[in-house]
User: What shape does this take?
Amino acid sequence: MSLAKRIIPCLDVTNGRVVKGVNFLELRDAGDPVEIARRYDEQGADELTFLDITASSDNRGLILNIIEQVASQVFIPLTVGGGVRAVEDVRRLLNAGADKVSINTSAVTNPQLVADAASRFGSQCIVVAIDAKQVGDHWEVFTHGGRQATGIDAIEWARKMVALGAGELLVTSMDRDGTKIGFNLPLNRAISDAVDVPIIASGGVGNLTHLVEGVKEGGADAVLAASIFHYGEYTVREAKEYMRDYGIEVRL
Amino acid sequence: MTHIAVVDYGMGNLRSVSKALEHVAPNQKVIVTSDPAQIAAADRVVFPGQGAMPDCVRELDARGLRDAVVAAAAEKPFLGICIGLQLLFEHSEEGDAAGLGIFKGKVKRFAPADMHDADGAKLKVPHMGWNQVYQSQSHPLWHGIEDGERFYYVHSYYVAPEDASLDAGFSEYPARFTSCIARGNLFAAQFHPEKSHNAGLKLLSNFVQWDGGN
Assistant: This one.
């Protein structure tokens, strides 16, 4: 009778391959992005997120190719992030077939980019990714894959990004990412309560109970996970059935 | 070969729409166009839209597309999507803008302060994700689609038609709102069929075979 909570498999892509690391180190190859996208689509994924973690700018064009191929075969929303620095980057990704573009480091270095991209393409396609880490008694925004502290309070930052035009926030706990010990629930809850736009919880999923907690305790509108799906531990459908059994509305 | 024109007025990304149409209509020609003559010559017209409604109206007029869209809406199989539904009405709260005024009624904003789910949790705006769509009348575009099937939405505004008989489908967030309208050769949906997996492709497939009748 109402809006379903979304499950979003996340594909970290570098040099044309899907990889997964622990805290952005020790990258493991997980396969071909188009093949993996099709598999998740068949399993009932509600959206797909691609993060281009290619370090060198030489291979940046590869992601456009991949998105073009996926978009002509998979008819669910596609979000693409990684290395988005200018309105022109947003346009290029949307033209390749992305439905939403996620902005992370550049939102910090140039917040006006969020405002410009939202006013040009609409808030519905601008996701701001917030990488946060606990520092003392609060959460601080980090950039550059969690390596660089900014001194910015994550909750205030979330409010500011929404005011500038972000239509959705992807909240990743850098303390949890790749650890498989579950989302940082208080962080997600605090941001979800602070803003009106939907929140995607990310970072730390190791089992299906973590997904349920993310929605019920973390107040997430969508949950993002990578490794539990990539290595075949669970299918997206199994995850949804599990959530449904805990009273969460899902699309099955 | 029949032609499907996707109206391009510079607002947002039409690639998803054209890809999905090509997928369901391999034997028809899909043209993304801002040329009024091509819209007039097409057998069917898809009218999508993204972004803010005042910008959409401005861009539509800047390209001289208003008359072609209004004419197509009156005479050939016509599918409005998202802002392409909202634009058919008289007025939107978004930027206090006038629409094309084909139908009487307003476009209103969800008010998040008053919106909670059954468990009392705050509902977010935009209304983003997969919600159930209930069919309020039988229609060729619903053929083979279950009542209550989920479609993908992303919007902060919804249409409130004056004429209740326009309503062809609705969803709840948390209150019921009209999410599809139908009149003669015209059908329009607030959700995105091009992003709604099998159900969405089925609706598009029904559209590309539709003669505009009942």
About this structure: The longest strand of chain B covers residues 127-135. Chain B has a mean pLDDT of 94.
